[in-house]
Amino acid sequence: MAELHATINKFIQCGRPLDLDVAAIRAVAQVEYPKQDNLQEKRPAWKPVGFKGRNRIEIAIIERIHSSQYDRPDISDSGWIYGRVQVKTEIEGNPEVSLTLLKEAQNHLSLPHFHQCVNNITDAAQGMQITFNPSLGPVSLLKYSLEPRDRLPIRGFYQMRELSPSHAKVLVQLKLADAAANQFETCCVEIPFPSRHSVLSLDLQPTVGAVNVDPKRKNVVVWNIGGKLSSKSLEAALSGSISFDEVAVAIPAEDALCVKSTGYARVLFKIPDYALSGLNVSSSGVTVNPKPSVKKSVSISRIVESGEYTIWNSLGEAIFAISPESEGAPPLLPSQSRNIARSSIFSSESPDSPELPTSDLKTESPNNTT
Hints:
The chain is mostly beta strands. The chain is built from 3 helices and 19 strands. It has helices spanning 2-11, 22-30, 337-345, and strands at 56-69, 77-90, 96-102, 110-114, 118-124, 127-132, 139-146, 154-164, 167-176, 186-192, 199-206, 210-213, 220-224, 235-244, 264-272, 280-281, 287-289, 297-312, 332-333. Strands 1, 2, 4, 7, 10, 12, 13, 15, 18 and 19 form a 10-stranded mixed beta sheet that branches. Strands 3, 5, 6, 16 and 17 form a 5-stranded antiparallel beta sheet that branches. It has a 4-stranded antiparallel beta sheet with strand order 8-9-14-11, covered by helices on one side. A hairpin with a 2-residue loop joins strand 5 and strand 6. The longest helix has 10 residues, at 2-11. The chain is elongated and about 75 Å long. The chain starts with a helix and ends in a 25-residue tail after the last helix. The relative contact order is 0.20. The model is unreliable at 35-39, 326-332 and 334-370 (pLDDT under 50).
């Protein structure tokens, strides 16, 4: 009862929760709570008990990019990046930690939000210095958003044409940006057909990776690209035909408009050791005050992962929104995938480019297709 009373006094003073951090609550439950508070050591609400163990600091820069690509002159591609600097600090005592966040000068972070444990933010050479009192568990030290400009990590092109109610031709082509690292923790493309009951057979030829039907979603084709694209062209392509059964199916509400030629391919990827924002942290720029008696270890990681990353069928209708030209609104990007497709992806000289019958797939406006 004494421990319960002390916990309530610490976390729910005057009946109002001061902190709902799960890591802090678990730490209080696992560590014997002091019977009397040490008035000479005032602790913040996000670190009610001390840490004992090996000193280490883990810093991760995690960015998630959302994009919609259309390859059409009448619809501009769109994109937006949401990122966070996540820090997990395990240092004995109640120290103050400083780190220098390096960033590229031309990249402006929109709507930066700092965690309550941050004490001071100062401009530093090529970035900013952040000083904070660490929490018990991992915290998002900084959250931000960023417009990708013309630096989408993967540009894509998708065409799908129905040849009959049970047969369709598809073409998917991807190109990795020159600045992006050609290494993936995971990279795959999902092609859903919500108006179809299930896929009967596949006759698809990928230039890299393997293709199969999702075992749980029988109307979704999955192209597992693997760890990298072609090292020479930084491209990958998938072409061929798909056969379906003709059983009627109820279309999910979120894909109610995806019938006939209206559809999309979804790209899912994780690129390690990379940040679209250019943000980075040097381990030598991480300091602890007062200096711990035992040497600390510092690990730094960066990763870019896909959010809603869709490529719409350029031969069909597409769902898109017109964003108001206001501060903080996601920008419209110039549609560049058509130029990439004509100059590189569709190049017959590329060894990775598939041979496609021009009678089946044509780069035309939807109103001119038959």
